[in-house]
Amino acid sequence: MIIPRTIRRMKEKMGHKSGPYAHLFEPYDGDEVVSLDCETTGLDVKNADIISIGAVRVKGNKVLTSERLDIKLKPPKTLTGDSIKIHKIRAVDLEDGIELEEALEQVLAFVGNRPILGYYVNYDIRMLDKFIRPKYGFGLPCKAIELSHVYHDIIKWRMVGGNVDLRFDTISKKLDIPILERHTALGDAITVALMYVRLKYGDPPEVG
Fold it and tell me: Name one GO cellular component term (predicted).
């Protein structure tokens, strides 16, 4: 039986309302979001592992690059040649990586109860929840902000009768935001943060 996310979240909140992570379930009323990205060994959540996590805070119209996470984990057994072709991260590059448990603690402390921003952000949240839930008894309760939805909602009225291209590279080009170290967790997190700020506070993107 699949438990709807809202019901599961309510149950988890009740179960942790007096515990050390109760603050994660409190409504957020600030002006920050956390742009987050995970590099993984595959696209199948069930079988993939996380190899790096990048995150940066956004406060209003500012990307706070000094407040960031740049985590490398110890190489998992699922790190194969196919995944290396995409993110260019080899086992040798992860020799100084930290244990997954420490990485999860850092993520929970850094994100807190702020909204999580990302490109295909639900995939990153599901990957983290895959490891967070068995250890802590809950999944990330934060609100999720999908960058491609923000982009689509802003320009859809200008694309009547046409399709909106939601590819990462296209959105970056339309917003005139350079892609920083594509397929690195921190690089993608910062690029998404910059695109989000442009969408929320800058001029509408050109279409055509």
Answer: cytosol
Number of other CB atoms surrounding residue 80 within 10 Å: 11
Question: Which residues on neighbouring strands pair with residue 64, listed in sequence order?
Answer: 57
Please check whether residue 127 is in contact with residue 176, taking contact to mean a CB–CB distance below 8 angstroms.
Answer: no
**Ordered alpha helix ranges (H), 26-177:** 81-87, 100-111, 121-136, 147-155, 168-175
The token duo for 70 is: 């740049």
Using alpha carbons, list the distances in angstroms from residue 20 to 15, 108, 123, 143, 178. 11, 12, 26, 20, 40
pLDDT digits (tens, 9 = 90+) for 1-29: 445 667 777 777 676 777 788 899 999 99
Nearest by Cα to 108 from 125, 84, 86: 125
pLDDT tens-digit profile of 78-96? Answer: 777 666 666 667 776 677 8
Residue-range domains of the chain with CATH: 31-201 (3.30.420.10)
pTM metric for this prediction: 0.87
Count CB atoms within 10 A of the CB of residue 143: 13
